[in-house]
Amino acid sequence: MAAGSRGDVQPMVALGVGLTRAGHDVTICAGNDFEGFVTGHGLAFVPAGVRIDELIASPLGVEWLGHSSRNPFRELSALRRFVRQSTQGYAGALVPLVGSADLWVSGVLTVHAVDALVSVGGGRHVVAEFAPMRPTRSGAATMQPAFTTRSSIANLIAGQGTLQTMSSVFAPPGDRLRAELGLPATGRRGFLDAIRRTPGVLAASPLVVPPPSDWHGTSEATGYWFLDEKATYTTEPALAAYLKEGSKPAYVGFGSMSTREAAATSEVVAEAARKAGVRVVLHAGAAGLGSTDDEWVQVVGDVPHAWLFERMAGVVHHGGAGTTAAALRAGVPQAVVAHIGDQPYWARRVWELGVGARPVRRHQLSAEWLTEVLRGFARGESAARAAAVGAEIRREDGVGRAVALLT
């Protein structure tokens, strides 16, 4: 059940490929726009009844993804509306799946719904976690801790508060499906109960998210679930020429984060590249970033991170779990411009691990900050530490470990 954007779908596809290689039949339920991506990797596909790319580009998507980092209450309100709209067709897509699987792997958004499916049609249920969500005293494994560097009961309370907040957002889609199945609504308590009784597999490196003892085995960090696509990628001629022209460029891109400020953000990138004297590969992404400065900025569409990042002097990104993981594995320095959700957590962990520059939030992005980041990349700051962490990440087999746990 891969509800969400590419960052939510791709690791599920990676897990599905691993399960298929182990001899299992795998079906992915995701946004309609991911059908080709899923089936292209040999997996069966069930459309969720909505196109995620259209939602991200809609005014509601832009409001949530592009303007929320200043105000957490506004972010939460926009997220509630986005989830409500993006899951309108979900119940209709899921009801026919009752009883069709021996094992269900949900995400956080669908854990409540899949809990209902399992209660009616049976099967085992495991939740795939792409960020740590189980309450703990550990600051390193708490998304919004009171104390980042030590163990504290205050962190445990903060984690419980985060789950309560999540329940207010993600319980309604589950209750919508429960109504379709003839079950009573369980609301926020039902969402929380589903989390508590469903074992988790955390698709992250234990080096980055050290599993705390007070999780008591409810979730295990398997390592990241990477989907290697670089073997089949054919380099675009313009990008290939740009990479050969001079010293290593830096990557700047914000993935599925849309914005109303594409022109201003693009100019910030170009200005920083010129001032720092560092060429940039700029990912257009959902924001539609671009540039007319062909000397310092090369704009690209979607390029596999596994192929691109290892060719960069450093990576500036939005802090999505998948992009952070790809930059870590590439072994290059990074800097995070956190927008929403779990992105500030990954930004903090990058900084704490010593593999990147001090992060900023989206509304703090400036040409001055980015110029210093690019200069740091050129000087090789954090490069040795990033390379060492990357070597450790590459030794892990997250998909293999997850498959072993699930089967």
- Rg over alpha carbons: 21 Å
| Largest beta sheet: strand ordering | 9-8-7-10-11-12
> Treating each run of at least 4 consecutive H or I residues as one helix, how many helices?
17
The CATH homology group name of the largest domain: Glycogen Phosphorylase B
What proportion of the residues form beta strands (DSSP E)? 5-15%
Q: Briefly note the CATH topology name of the largest domain.
A: Rossmann fold
Outline the structure in words.
The chain is an alpha/beta fold and 407 residues long. It has two domains: 186 residues, Glycogen Phosphorylase B (Rossmann fold), CATH 3.40.50; 166 residues, Rossmann fold. It is 46% helix and 11% strand. It has 17 helices and twelve strands. Strands 9-8-7-10-11-12 form a six-stranded parallel sheet, sandwiched between helices. The protein has a four-stranded parallel sheet with strand order 3-4-5-6. Strands 1-2 form a two-stranded parallel ribbon. Helix 5 packs parallel to helix 8 and helix 13 crosses helix 16. The chain is globular. The model has no long low-confidence stretch (mean pLDDT 92).
